[in-house]
Specification:
Elements lengths: L3 E7 L4 E8 L4 E5 L2 E5 L4 E3 L1 H13 L2 E6 L8 E2 L1 H8 L2 E5 L2 H11 L15 E3 L4 E4 L2 E7 L8 E5 L2 E3 L21 H12 L6 E3 L14 E3 H7 L13 H12 L8 H8 L23 H5 L3
Parallel strand pairs: 3-6, 6-8, 8-9, 13-14
Antiparallel strand pairs: 1-2, 2-3, 4-5, 4-7, 10-11, 11-12, 12-13, 14-15
């Protein structure tokens, strides 16, 4: 079956949030919801999330799932805001526990954040089936960018998170803790083995060259045109060539602007830290640790 998909672009972080629905059953999922955040002032906001919530209410859809493709390093999740407003289960792949174990240590959150995934309502196993209304869905574990990356298949649509971008944008970086270019290559091959007409929806579009926003491609287009996967005239890029390219490219990249703030929130399933004795919530910045602990050299 073919779900109805509506994309919402969060321009501050170049993130796509998707409302995915069975319009007959009037049941829906939201994928990768973004919270507004001003890093200079430390202010959070819900303008972008509220636009999606208003759309779901206008359609008369019941929200069953709030799905994260991974614990994002470039935006704070609005998952809990959606849950408070509309209900639904917050879910992610079971690889989140490995991500939590890593970053609990980085941020000194021992005793504050359990590294067991319990902050989420559901942890998906690889190849686990679920439903969006009457539309069959399943989860593919697709790590490499992070330990917890998953792709959600809903009918003929695949939501690939940060595994790949539009064909002119290539593929995701693999230099965060738990990242691995070989694992990403193998995850990409798993995605590319889906039927050629499968609709792929990207989590980000950075609009290379200043072009207009694009966020949807087919398996066929990615096989033929993705600049990191198309290889030479003899066939696609080999695993060794991909790893060499990816590691060389990653060595030139700076950290995402919001990695320090976003990781602390996203490993909590979008829950903000508990207030301190003065009623104020705080995020930590580990000094002299970023190069060593957050981005492998």
């Amino acid at each position: 079956m073919r779900p109805e998909v509506r994309a919402f672009f969060h321009s501050a972080t170049s993130t796509l949030t998707y409302a995915v629905a069975d319009p007959v059953a009037k049941r829906a999922a939201v994928i990768d919801p973004a919270l507004d955040y001003d890093p200079a002032a430390g202010h959070t906001g819900t303008r972008a999330a509220d636009e999606v919530i208003a759309y779901l209410r206008e359609q008369g859809w019941t929200l069953d799932w709030i799905l994260e493709t991974h614990a994002h390093a470039d935006h704070l999740s609005a998952a809990q805001h959606f849950k408070r407003a509309l209900g639904g289960k917050v879910a992610i792949g079971e690889g989140i526990t490995a991500v939590q174990r890593t970053f609990v240590k980085v941020f000194g959150l021992e005793g504050e954040v359990a590294a067991d995934g319990s902050q989420f309502d559901h942890l998906f196993r690889d190849d686990e089936a679920f439903q969006v209304g009457g539309i069959a869905a399943r989860v593919l574990h697709t790590p490499g960018h992070t330990d917890d990356g998953v792709t959600y298949l809903v009918g003929d649509a695949a939501f690939v998170g940060d595994t790949m971008f539009m064909p002119d944008g290539g593929t995701a970086r693999c230099d965060f803790p738990g990242g691995d270019a070989r694992r990403l290559y193998r995850s990409l091959q798993r995605i590319l083995a889906l039927p050629a007409a499968t609709r792929l929806f990207m989590c980000h579009d950075y609009q290379p060259g200043g072009r207009e926003l694009r966020y949807q491609a087919t398996i066929a287009a990615q096989r033929a045109e993705n600049l990191h996967l198309r290889g030479d005239a003899k066939g696609g890029t080999t695993e060794d060539d991909f790893v060499a390219m990816r590691e060389a490219r990653d060595a030139t990249l700076g950290m995402p602007n919001l990695i320090v703030q976003s990781i602390q929130v996203n490993i909590r399933a979008g829950h903000l830290p508990e207030p301190g004795p003065n009623g104020v919530r705080y995020l930590k910045t580990p000094l002299d640790q970023l190069g060593k602990a957050l981005v492998r050299k």
